[in-house]
Please model this.
Amino acid sequence: MNDATQSYSIQPENQKVTNLLSIDVEDYFQVSAFERVSPEAGWGARELRVEGNTERVLSLLDAAGIKATFFVLGWVAERCPQLVRCIAEGGHEVASHGYGHKRVGLQSQAEFREDVRRSKALLEDLSGSEVSGYRAPSYSISRQIPWAFDELLEAGYRYDSSIFPIRHDFYGIPDWPRFIGPAVKIADGSWQSANVANGEPTLVEVPISTVRIGGKNLPIAGGGYFRLLPYVVTRWGLQRINRTEGQPFVFYLHPWEFDPGQPRFQGAGWKSNFRHYLNLDKTEGRFRRLLGDFHFGTIRAGLNL
Ligand SMILES: [Zn+2]
Model:
């Protein structure tokens, strides 16, 4: 571990670790698992539920006195500009989820450049502050796309939160370090964690948290895993990251995960349906418990940006 890495470890406040809470602001019809049954061309005709669902998340956070990072999709920001203003005025961080929610591997380098620049400019106009962070649709920055970090850096982003260090059928870089640290570009043009390679750190990577059991990284910090596992299991895993490893965890949810009444898609396959619709009615209750059990802040504040 080098000096630059150490500065991102613990943010003590009231003797607790400050964890990083993130919300990916997209609608139920934009998730990658539904890209075939809900192509982008039809999005404009669908019932928009993201605004109401995000307002519900904001009110839960307000009640708990917690600030979070909102990775907002540019497509949503254009249609709900007041929502972006509201997030910023609430003291939360506005960050970018890109513009069109196309997985990075399905975009050319030029398309990706346009997508991350367009969303950043739009969100900065609406929020009135710098957008420092980016999260790729479906954590889709993989080792096969070496230019993604180059483009983020050139577009002016200061951190990325797209790497999920697990094995999964759609995403993940299983051997990326599990905790926050600088990323560096090495001689062959690829990017590595500064924990394992030398170079000038220019972009900070904020991986989604995992719990390490039996030599494997297991997902524990949000989304479908939060809805699947009993809350006490999630709490145990997250406490282990804070107490045993002394690290903050990075947690994520989507506004549609708070919405059991959303329209249902057919034809995406049982696995995608299971992941998307499981326990939507449990999210809010579990989220309230989570907010009471742990200390949270924005990613920008956690990185001292
Ligand atoms: Zn997304």
Notes: The domain at 16-302 is CATH 3.20.20.370 (TIM Barrel). Residues 24, 26, 97, 101, 137 surround zinc ion (CB under 6 Å). The first strand starts at residue 12 and ends at 13. The chain has a mean pLDDT of 91.
